[in-house]
UniProtKB/TrEMBL annotation:
Signal peptide positions on this chain: none
EC nos: 1.5.1.2
Protein name as catalogued: Pyrroline-5-carboxylate reductase
Domain Pyrroline-5-carboxylate reductase dimerisation: 163-267
Ranges of residues in domain Pyrroline-5-carboxylate reductase catalytic N-terminal: 7-99
Family according to the record: Belongs to the pyrroline-5-carboxylate reductase family.
GO biological process, one term: L-proline biosynthetic process
Residues that coordinate or bind NADP(+): I9, G10, A11, G12, N13, M14
Keyword terms of this UniProt record: Amino-acid biosynthesis, Cytoplasm, NADP, Oxidoreductase, Proline biosynthesis
Molecular function per GO: pyrroline-5-carboxylate reductase activity
Record PANTHER family: PYRROLINE-5-CARBOXYLATE REDUCTASE, PYRROLINE-5-CARBOXYLATE REDUCTASE 3
Residues that hold NADPH according to the record: N57
């Protein structure tokens, strides 16, 4: 990654995941600063080698080239208004907040800064993230490239040209690690009821999830065909897959993702 400094405002789960991925990927921890009102999250970042840590958002921005807004959507306005005096016109400001629009962020920053919205996910922490990016029309090529550089250092990146598509990105990537965790929780619990010890169930389940994900990501075969290749006619898998279909899995997934995207849209209204 080229040389620049990045300030994270808010050092909770998502910031920690991105910072963890950046540092694990070779970014110098001294080029990353972070602020948080409470000490705990900053101590976790100290262990990653960060030295520029503090409680003042304004001080932490200092001379940073890139500012990442990593606070909850309800706090974005107050944080932007607090930062407005230290944001330059050409500052790249990346917001990871769900819903909150780029125009509102730009306005709260005193119409300064080049604002890119990002919808990342927590696997960024191990370099396996998946992020959607959207830039306001006024963001220049240099800052578009820089935003992509930051996020592609911790996973795959896709740009969306229309901001509302970030609601779909939230449903398919930002929130989605939680769906797979919920699914794996249920699988591990059932494997335990079937008699497997917890460690074996967890290891076999997690590795199967990684393997299936990699086959889809790294090959050119679609998910439906990969599924069919596991299902021997009248074999064991078919019974499981039939049970999912009979239980309405496709509709349930649609319903869950629609609810997720709808809540993301609500957040955009709530904090405008
Ligand atoms: N957790 C996730 O999987 C994802 C979260 N996001 C977005 O990331 C943002 C942060 O979410 P999380 O990290 O999950 O929340 P979090 O609660 O773990 O982190 C937020 C941090 O901000 C700190 N904070 C509170 N007030 C502050 C202030 N005035 N100035 C600076 N820091 C302040 C809190 O102490 C906390 O450590 C949210 O806007 C969320 O929509 C986006 C994608 C995925
Ligand atoms: O639950 C949320 O609102 C955030 C956005 C995506 C993941 N966490």
């Amino acid at each position: 990654m080229s040389e620049f400094t990045t300030a994270f405002i808010g050092a909770g789960n998502m910031s920690r995941s991105i910072i963890g991925g950046l540092v694990a990927g070779g970014v110098d921890p001294r080029s990353v600063s972070a602020s948080n009102p409470s000490k705990g999250p900053l101590e976790a970042l100290e262990k990653l080698g960060l030295t520029e840590l503090g409680h003042s958002n304004v001080e932490v921005v200092g001379n940073a080239d890139v500012v990442v807004l990593g606070v909850k959507p309800k706090l974005i306005q107050a944080v932007c208004e607090e930062l407005a005096p230290v944001i330059r016109d050409d500052h790249l400001v990346i917001s990871v907040a769900a819903g909150v629009t780029a125009d509102n962020i730009h306005r709260w920053l005193g119409s300064k800064g080049e604002v890119v919205r990002c919808m990342p996910n927590t696997p960024s922490q191990i370099g396996a993230g998946a992020s959607g990016l959207y830039a306001r029309a006024s963001v220049g090529d240099a800052n578009r490239q820089r935003a992509e550089e930051v996020m592609s250092a911790v996973g795959v990146v896709r740009w969306v040209q229309e901001e509302p598509l970030l609601h779909a990105v939230t449903a398919v990537a930002g929130s989605a690690p939680a769906y797979f965790f919920q699914f794996m929780e249920a699988m591990i619990a059932e494997a335990g009821r079937m008699g497997l010890d917890e460690e074996s169930a967890r290891t076999l389940c997690a590795q199967t999830c990684i393997g299936a994900g990699r086959m889809l990501a790294e090959g050119d075969v679609d998910a439906a065909e990969l599924r069919r290749r596991v299902c021997s006619p009248n074999g064991a898998t078919e019974r499981a897959v039939d049970a999912f279909s009979a239980g309405g899995l496709d509709k349930l997934v649609s319903k869950a993702m629609e609810a997720c995207a709808a809540r993301s849209e609500e957040l955009a209204q709530e904090f405008s």
